[in-house]
Specification:
The complex is a heterodimer of chains A (363) and B (696). Chain A has 363 residues and is mostly helical. Chain A has one domain: Amino acid/polyamine transporter I (Up-down Bundle). In chain A, helix 4 runs antiparallel to helix 12, helix 5 crosses helix 12 and helix 6 runs parallel beside helix 9. The longest helix of chain A is centred in the first third of the chain and has 43 residues. Chain B is built from 26 helices and 14 strands. In chain B, strand 13 and strand 14 form a beta hairpin. The longest helix of chain B has 30 residues. Chain B is elongated and about 100 Å long. The termini of chain B are far apart. The chains are: A mainly alpha (363), B alpha+beta (696).
């Protein structure tokens, strides 16, 4: 599960969505990542204790604490956010694939292949996904580490200042607005029933999340050292651009396609897990145990949804404005409200229990 | 209309049917409908607490004997396809194993008892019973207990192994003279004087008698304090033949033969253990093929054994000679490109795996032995690896992995580079490649296919023709055909080099079946790259990794120990021989009584299960361990298991278990607290506390 969470989170740095942090964080995109990550973690921590129960996922808690009506509305909102995220991520990935591999091929064909490759493994369940995810996790980190090491040879400290980018108040504000960048961590709470103990869950969640945020920050930091701010804001594909500058003499150059192969493999498994989670959410919303009947539907929605944005700019803007800036209240309020309601209920039950006991004693 | 109905049914089936992936020890998707499934009555029986029919049939009696009641085989499509049994705890498995042996006293194999108890009983019936238990006589097909009578009608039990004894010598030296004895036999010394044996001994330890039987000696029991042991050994050895397909520089050179008894005799010699079990099954094919399921009772997982037996039993009637087809009937993914079993002709390789908890199948009239379960990495291991220094072995393994990737991917990478990613090639190289292709009329993919198919033709031809001209065909293919194709402008020289290297890569793969898989996959990757370039390769590679991840072999995930990650198991890399301390946890071999392996493999008993002797089974208490090892007979007998720390702990646990079983003590509170509070992957706190106190 640790590998799954890290692939989901760290994979973001390899697709064009990293541009959002670079755009708002200027030269201090890494600080923006740290701030957003920390704030998202703070929002989620109050509901962490709820997941001591091994067989209950986020949706079960939503239904239990908020009731069936509010629970299903909140669940639907989360499902919608996830579907939007899948569509935008898929389209961003397809853009990157077009640039890296198939500039003349129709994006519809690429999306079709991608959706088929995303949906088929989901049908066979989380075991296969988890295992292949472990291999992709290793591949992803080899890719990332080697890329960062190669990039360091081109780093200049003079590209760093101003260290705080647009300034601390601005960073804090954008940190709050962009905490949705790390909202995929909520998927982890959906997968809770697949873990045996709360201790395992808590450890893998915290370790995976913190490590992912640190990795993202490190990658952005190195990227900033290699490509300074105004220039980096104009690059649509930071990962590909970074891979392009790797140079080892005449024979090893322009090896971005090799890196992109590794990235495609990890990106596919990441989207597999998204599709799996979306199908699971559909099943939980409709209170059925069989998630497989929703895979085709989620795949179709992803296919059509990813074809809507006409260009990478509109896709990035949509992701930035709708998925993050206008949805941050959703990501902040749901975990906090869930934790709070659950705590109040528990407190009231405790008090009622005590009062009942006192009445019994008096009697 | 029916087509629409079929389509509708198919959609309902894929969305609402049973999940295609099933957990451990469940039927694989591709095996659906071919294998037997548990009838509902058996499930009801199981729910009511009665033992599973399959378990009974495989554990308490020879597998070829059908248990009474309903037949196991049932091929109904709509029936439930549940996992066979729930996961057994270590304690339950141990109990099951002792049950298998049919002896619940201290003489059972693997139970180390006090040396004073390891003495032959006086009564003949009791002697026979103990020896039957030690030799797994109810299951072992080669162990024979024969009653013979002297002229005076005194009963003598003759015990021997049919595959390690010389039957002629047995007749001449023991059986015939025995039936001619005309005087009473008060003890074995009188018997020895009456038999014309020159190499004989007396012994009063049942374990020694069991060892004598499996090493080819005949044991005569007449009651009394001792038994008579006479040597009539005839073990099959080197004269059999040398290996043809798996030749090595270092290590044994002998190979299995076609006759099953010969192969079993070789195994008896290579694995000289009393608990090496041969269970025979006769298939219902046209030739009534005999199969022997070989396992080491001490190490083999009873569940894997039960699964093997179940699959063999459920082959059913076959209108063919099934001698070489067994693997296709019982493997998990029969339609897959990747093999999930290993065929070998090397006894040392079989012995190595048997002693690590795997199960082997010896098929009559077949010179290769099957090993199950098998992972992907096992397919890349050769018998020689363990005989080499660790560096050499690992170097060769890396070369084999590179060879596998080269065999699968090299042509597709070339197509991707030339057709899609020109920028990756330096200009001089790109120009050279383009220049060499100037006069070629075909696209790159056709060039590659022409040479690839020609290469496959050469390979197939060189196998089929007599060996004398086989090398000639190689030379013709490599030199003349390649050169002529280049001169005729059919292919470019670069492609010739490329396909040659690819061919070398496929030759370097040690397992022939994986080699086949690589050869076929190469075509898929070539087409994927031709259509979509590196993107096609990436997508196809991801799907391949995912497919390998969902595969399993007899319940063991195919990519073990890489994923699921089991760092202590031997995977791609070999560790130093001094690090071979753990048995593969993925096989759940019985030595996983070791606490640490249990923890890493999540096999630990839950504390709330208050089974008698739970504390001792885990060996949690250091006092228990020390006490156990001082009590145990293994130290006095010089058992090799004592040399390994985890096995010592296990033996200690066993000894302690015997004492606690009789006392029926509940699980200690301290243990429960430590188990509940400790992380599953950490040592229980009890250990750490006492370690600290010792330090202090």
């Amino acid at each position: 599960m640790l590998a799954i969470s890290m692939v989901i989170m760290v994979g973001k740095i390899l697709d064009p969505s990293a541009d959002i942090l670079i755009h708002w964080g200027h030269g201090a995109a890494y600080l923006l990542a740290l701030l957003s990550g920390a704030m998202m973690l703070l929002c989620v921590l109050p509901m962490l204790w709820l997941f001591r129960q091994p067989d209950k996922s986020l949706f079960d808690h939503l239904f239990e604490q908020f009731g069936n009506v509010i629970g299903s509305i909140v669940g639907l909102l989360l499902l919608l956010a996830l579907l939007i995220d899948i569509c935008t991520t898929l389209r961003l990935d397809v853009h990157q694939i077009e640039v890296a591999f198939l500039p003349t091929t129709s994006p519809i064909l690429i999306v079709m292949i991608y959706v088929a490759a995303m949906s088929l493994p989901v049908y066979f369940g989380i075991e296969g996904l988890g295992r292949s995810n472990l291999i992709m996790f290793v591949l992803l980190f080899i890719t990332l580490i080697s890329l960062l090491l190669f990039m360091l040879t081109r780093a200049h400290l003079s590209y760093m200042p101003p260290v705080l980018g647009p300034g601390l108040p601005n960073l804090l504000q954008q940190g709050v607005l962009h905490l949705g960048f790390f909202a995929e961590m909520l998927l982890f709470f959906i997968f809770r029933p697949y873990l045996r103990t709360y201790r395992e869950f808590r450890w893998s969640f915290l370790t995976g999340y913190i490590a992912s945020v640190l990795w993202i920050a490190l990658a952005l930091f190195v990227f900033n050292l290699v490509i300074p701010y105004p220039t980096s804001d104009h690059l649509m594909y930071p990962f590909l651009e970074s891979a392009k500058i790797v140079y080892f003499g005449r024979f090893i150059q322009h090896i971005e396609a090799v890196y992109a192969v590794a990235w495609v493999a990890s990106s596919l498994i990441r989207l597999n897990i998204f599709i799996f989670a979306a199908s699971l959410l559909c099943a939980e919303l409709l209170r059925t145990a069989n998630y497989r009947r929703f895979i085709a539907v989620v795949g179709a929605i992803s296919f059509y949804g990813s074809l809507i944005p006409p260009s990478i700019m509109s896709d990035l803007s949509f992701k930035d404005i709708v998925s993050m800036q206008r949805s941050f209240l959703l990501y902040v309020s749901i975990p906090l409200a869930l934790g709070l309601v659950a705590y109040i209920r528990k407190w009231r039950q405790k008090r009622n229990g005590k009062t009942g006991q006192a009445l019994q004693n008096q009697a | 209309m029916s087509t629409v109905r079929k389509l509708y049914d198919w959609i309902v089936q894929i969305s609402e049917g049973t999940p295609p992936y099933r957990g451990r020890f469940s039927l694989s998707p591709s095996a659906q409908g071919r294998e037997g499934m548990i009838p509902e009555s058996a499930e009801k029986q199981k729910a009511s607490g009665q033992p599973d029919q399959i378990e009974r049939s495989t554990s308490q009696q020879p597998p070829n004997v059908q248990a009474s009641g309903e037949p196991i085989q049932s091929r109904g499509v709509g029936e439930k396809n549940e996992p066979l049994t729930e996961q057994l705890s270590v304690w339950e498995r141990r109990r099951a194993k002792i049950g298998e042996e049919g002896v619940k006293d201290s003489h059972a194999v693997g139970q180390k008892s006090d040396p004073a108890d390891d003495v032959l009983a006086i009564e003949l019936t009791e002697q026979e019973k103990v020896l039957r238990g030690l030799l797994n006589a109810s299951v072992n097909m080669d162990i024979l207990f024969r009653d013979h009578f002297t002229m005076l009608g005194q009963r003598v039990v003759v015990v021997h192994s049919s595959v390690t004894c010389d039957e002629t010598s047995l007749q001449d030296l023991v059986l015939r003279p025995l039936s001619e004895i005309e005087e009473p036999l008060p003890d074995v010394e009188v018997l020895a004087r009456r038999l014309p044996c020159s190499d004989f001994t007396f012994d009063d330890h049942p374990s020694n008698l069991a060892r004598a039987v499996i090493t080819g000696k005949v044991v005569l029991l007449i009651g009394g304090l001792r038994a008579f042991i006479c040597s009539v050994t005839k073990l099959q050895s080197r004269a059999v033949s040398t290996t043809m397909n798996e030749s090595v520089v270092r290590g044994p050179q002998e190979a299995f033969a076609e006759k099953m008894e010969t192969n079993l005799s070789i195994l008896r010699r290579v694995v000289p253990r009393p608990d090496l079990t041969f269970a025979e099954i006769t298939l219902q094919d046209t030739a009534n093929t005999r199969i022997c399921v070989v396992s080491v009772a001490e190490y083999a997982n009873p569940r894997i054994l039960a699964e093997v037996n179940r699959r063999l039993q459920n082959i059913g009637r076959v209108p063919l000679n099934a001698s070489g087809l067994v693997v296709q009937y019982i493997e998990d993914h029969s339609r897959s490109l990747f093999p999930t079993t290993i065929y070998t002709e090397r006894p040392d390789l079989v012995a190595r795996y048997l002693l690590r908890g795997y199960v082997s199948l010896v098929v009559d009239n077949h010179s290769q032995v099957l090993i199950v379960p098998a992972t992907l990495w096992m397919q890349l291991i050769t018998a020689e690896d363990l005989y080499q220094r660790v560096w050499y072995a690992n170097f060769l393994r890396i070369i084999r992995v590179i060879a596998l990737f080269v065999a699968i991917l090299l042509p597709s990478i070339y197509i991707g580079l030339v057709n899609f990613q020109h920028e990756m090639l330096p200009s001089p190289l790109l120009l050279a490649i383009k220049a060499s292709r100037l006069n070629i009329p075909f696209p790159t993919v056709i060039e590659i296919l022409i040479l690839d198919i020609a290469f496959e033709l050469i390979r197939e031809a060189s196998i089929r023709v007599p060996h004398v001209i086989g090398s000639t065909i190689g030379i013709v293919g490599a030199l003349i055909l390649g050169q002529a194709a280049v001169e005729a402008n059919l292919v470019s020289p670069t492609i010739v080099i490329l396909i040659s290297v690819t061919g070398l890569g496929s030759f370097a793969i040690p397992n022939q079946e994986i080699g086949f898989a690589a050869r076929i996959l190469r075509f898929f990757f070539t087409f994927a790259s031709f259509l979509l370039g590196f993107f096609g390769i990436a997508v196809f590679l991801s799907l391949m990794v995912w497919y390998l991840s969902i595969m399993q072999s007899f319940g063991v995930p195919y990519l073990t120990p890489i994923t699921p990650y089991r760092p202590k198991e031997e995977g791609l890399m070999r560790s130093s021989v001094t690090k071979y301390k753990y048995f593969p946890a993925s096989v759940h071999a019985l030595p996983t009584k070791n606490k640490e392996v249990q923890l890493s493999d999540r096999m630990r008993l839950k504390p709330e299960v208050s089974l008698p002797g739970t504390t001792a089974w885990h060996g949690d208490s250091p006092q228990a361990s020390s006490q156990g090892s001082s009590q145990g007979s293994s130290a006095t007998t010089g058992d090799w298991r004592e040399k390994l720390p985890f096995m010592a702990a296990a033996s200690a646990g066993e000894s302690q278990q015997q004492s606690t079983v009789s006392n029926e003590q509940p699980v200690s509170q301290e243990y429960q607290q430590s188990s509940q509070s400790a992380k599953p992957w950490r040592k229980p706190r009890l250990w750490r506390k006492q370690k600290n106190s010792v330090k202090g």
